[in-house]
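To fix ideas, we quote verbatim a fold written out as tokens:
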Amino acid sequence: MYSLQSPPLDFFHGLINLKEFAIFNNTFLEPWILPNDLTHCTKLETFHASFAKITGPMPGTLNHLTNLEILDLSYNNLNESLLSHLNNLSKLSDLTLHFTVVNRTERIGEENK
């Protein structure tokens, strides 16, 4: 039996018609970062990744996912704020970040100085 330790770095490469991605409740995964290839998934509407052991910085790719409606990154450990990566997501209607550890350097409603 094959066991996936984490998604390969090129996992999203070529998946330009991907509309939904779900990798939630996979506590057996090794910690992994969201790859930059996610940028090419411009038709992505739903991204469920709670309990997926996502860690590290968020790539600027989230800002390119302009069709994203649902984003769930609950129970992960991110190294930076998500605020700057959500600017272009005008269709985002459901953002779930329950118990997500974010090492924030900015505050909502305040400019960085």
